[in-house]
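HUMAN:
Could you generate one sequence with tokenized structure?
ASSISTANT:
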Amino acid sequence: MKRPFEGGKGGDGPSRKGRKGEGGGGGGSRSDVGPCVLKFLAPEILASAVIGKGGAVIKQMREDTKAKIALSEKDEYYPGTDCRIITASANSPDDLNEFAHQLIGKVAECTQAPTAPADTIGTPDELKLRTIMPRVAVGGLIGKGGATIKRLREQSGANIRVADSSSTGPGSEQVVTISGTVQALETVMQEANTQVQALAQEDWFMLWAGNCGAVRGGGYSGGSFADGYDAPASRGKGYDGGKGFDGGKGFDGGKGGKGDKGDKGGKAYDKGKGGYESLAPLQAPRNFAKGGFGGPMDLMMGVARELPPYVLEDSRGFAMSCVVPNRLVGGLIGRGGSHTKEVQAKTDTTIGIREIPGDADNRSLNIAGPLANTCAAYMLMMKRYLDVEADVAMQDAGGDGGKSGKGGKGGKR
């Protein structure tokens, strides 16, 4: 028996099972998806527009597109964002193209609202849509030597950005952000749809398709991280990993390029993935996993909650540092130091970038302050690092036919 959808009266929204996975606390697996599937991130303004009053809009979209459309619960978000997850499944790619067309229309409508969040849905002149794709499909979207993504950019005028994957394996996800006009978004989504559905016969596909992946309360409340997944290109995988866009060691092969000179061969988040060396691996250590922490965000929050007050309140403060390439320093700092000043003011920390004696190619990024503040500042600076790295990689790809660069230098504590 279906209950009224999203609090609507008499609406024909999906049942609880149809809206989220049967498993609780994070949107578990669904068994009612069709053979063709697309996933999208939806900030609350877009989710509300898709549902409509009493579920009227989503009901009409289902009838028009012949697609099953489900949203994660209102308090369940894609990890690291404040966005719900829309899963659309249908019997044919054409039906999903029609759904994407209607969803992009909803994005365009949402940008007209005076309070529309430009960071998550764009502006009337430049819409923004984020789709969640298996990493193998992302490799197809990029194409050999970056040929496909370059062609899409040239034909549509869209800006396409790829976030890193938080895990390994062909079914691991990456968020692809598309910015541009309605036509530009539709052009790119048609190719994205083609690449995703080409994998439908793979053994892991239906597991990916049926797993919502949402985390209860897992989004950020502020805007600083709300768009965190859409910006960075892969760290040392494909674009910036020195292995080309399509190689088996890029997006698709799980190894990625090594960092330039990072500690122990640039072992960043995962072995050989390049980029910078972070404070902790993406996957939770086994002892924390046994303690009930689900993913990286749960791990971080769980550790923070367990710390005794004297650790967070130690008056001496703490310091963190990493090494960044000179070529990214200007973008990392911002014009007139605007970005570092903003992060310092937001986190009450001190941030400095210094020369490294004997190393003309890199500089040291240093952050000091209370423990929690320092960690927050580090995360903000690393988001900026990846944004800048992605922009540089995209410029290189567009300017020289996809010639890959080197991975960012591994950071050091």
